[in-house]
Specification:
Elements lengths: L4 H14 L12 H6 L5 E7 L2 E6 L4 E6 L4 E4 L8 H6 L6 E4 L5 H4 L8 E3 L4 H7 L2 H8 L3 H5 L16 E2 L5 E3 L4 E6 L8 E5 L4 E3 L8 E3 L7 H15 L5 E3 L6 E2 L3 H13 L6 E5 L2 E5 L17 E3 L7
Parallel strand pairs: 4-5, 5-6, 6-7, 11-13, 12-17
Antiparallel strand pairs: 1-2, 2-3, 3-4, 8-9, 9-10, 10-11, 13-14, 15-16, 16-17
The structure holds zinc ion (ZN) (2 copies).
One zinc ion binds next to helix 4.
């Protein structure tokens, strides 16, 4: 099954607007307040002594980690607004940029930054996803935010050929703070997780989040994804006490890898709800039925949206 970019956007839109993964448009904001307030391009919160979580106008999350000598910006959002200038209000350290994967909502702002790392397996995906058309479509999921934008707000298109490769086993020493790199192929081929070693925190990006998407041409089948999770669990065991992701609140439960592994098993055994999910004539499935508040009816935490035809792949 091939899912094109528009399908991806539709489903991303569904994830954000319908499934409630943190869009401003999903909040109850009165017409009055929207009149007087243009949604901000970036906001941030300090979530640890040396880590900021930055949220863009569409609700995507980025992370800024500071060491003694330099700082790492993890992901660059949808490439709208002056992210570099914003980051410089948070740190004066020289910056490296690590892209967790090549999707539109994570990689599109890279052109502003000199030293950028991404797994080269996502190069083709990057080219497709960071086009102006895709970025405008994605930003449009928050209509009030999109309305406030002009063409000059969109950062230039970048070329992944200038990026340095980000691969399993790499470590970045920021000066007393180490970032350890783990590949989590599944959501995309080049999906990357990052262990903030001294902070004892694991960032899984979209590789494991509250609605892990596994159904488009760039994703792996469920069996391969479960193997990725098992590897990640093995190599990060006892090394973290917090888990972060790139959408929603950004916080996952500490046992979230186990929950996802269990959910994969339930799907293999045909014990999930397999809620049909059709778009453009193709079938995907939401593993566990949700109520109107997007919580799992069975009381579980998190969910997987997958391609039923690719369970054993
Ligand atoms: Zn993604
Ligand atoms: Zn994402």
């Amino acid at each position: 099954m091939q899912i094109n970019r528009r399908d991806f956007l539709k489903l991303s839109g569904l994830s954000i607007a319908t499934l409630g993964i943190g869009s401003l448009s999903n909040q109850k904001v009165s017409a009055e307040s929207m009149k007087s307030e243009t949604p901000q391009k970036f906001r941030s919160a300090k979530i640890d002594r040396n880590i900021f979580r930055i949220r863009n106008g569409v609700g995507d999350l980025m992370y800024l980690v500071e060491g003694k000598n330099r700082a790492a910006l993890i992901d660059t959002g949808v490439g709208v607004g002056d992210l570099k200038k914003y980051v410089e209000t948070l740190t004066d350290k020289p910056l490296i940029v690590l892209l967790t994967h090549g999707h539109v909502d994570h990689a599109s702002g890279s052109a502003q930054f000199e030293e950028v790392y991404m797994n080269h397996k996502d190069d083709e995906l990057f080219k497709e996803h960071t086009s102006l058309e895709t970025r405008k479509g994605y930003a449009g999921m928050n209509p009030d935010f999109a309305k406030s934008l002009t063409d000059s707000d969109f950062q230039p298109i970048d070329s992944p050929s200038r990026f340095k490769n980000l691969s399993n086993g790499m470590t970045f020493d920021l000066g007393g703070i180490h970032l350890d790199i783990f590949e989590i192929p599944g959501h995309t081929q080049g999906m990357t997780g990052i262990l903030f070693r001294e902070n004892r925190a694991l960032l899984t990006g979209d590789g494991a989040n509250m609605f892990t998407f596994l159904f488009s041409k760039e994703t792996l089948g469920l069996k391969s994804y479960q193997k990725s999770l098992q590897r990640l669990k093995k190599f990060t065991a006892k090394k973290f006490e917090k888990m972060y992701c790139s959408h929603g609140s950004g916080d996952l439960t500490i046992d979230y890898l186990d929950r996802l592994l269990e959910d994969c098993d339930l799907i293999f055994d045909g014990k999930d709800d397999r809620v049909p999910f059709e778009f453009m004539g193709s079938q995907a499935a939401i593993a566990f039925a949700i109520d109107q508040n997007h919580n799992r009816i069975d009381g579980g935490i998190g969910n997987i949206v997958y391609d039923p035809a690719r369970i054993s792949e």
